[in-house]
Here is the input.
Amino acid sequence: MEDYIKMIRKLAWDFHKSTGVDVDDLFQEAAEGWCKGLKTYTPDKGAITTHMWHCMSNQLRNYLKAEREWNAPLCDLEELHKVEYNVDHFMESLPPEVMEVVDIILADPVAFDILNRLDARVKIREIQWRNGRTLKEVRSVENTLRKIWSL
Here is the structure.
């Protein structure tokens, strides 16, 4: 078994040198390829090491392909800078009660930036209740803000 672990480590290291992906992640994927290869191996196909090498290589290639697709940029930064945003029009379209909350957040963005989502929601609710909003109005503002944040 030690020889097989060396083979898994060698293949993971080779892929690491050529791709720069974390060697531990590659080792884990190669070991998974090894396990899958054990299920498909039959002695009449040849040496087990050859079969396993191909299974592990295929597993690593599929993993790298999936990683590239997952980590692909959504858009080119140059294109992003070319887009003109009409923030004023967007802000004017917000209801006044939502604009109050947005103004409070923008007045002290650092205070909200350090909070997780739940704590930020609680703080926004407290601010609205102090300003005399009803529960229905608070929920309406929250729903509007949730829609804005998901854009």
About this structure: The CA atoms of residues 8 and 63 lie 15 Å apart. The two ends are 52 Å apart (CA to CA).
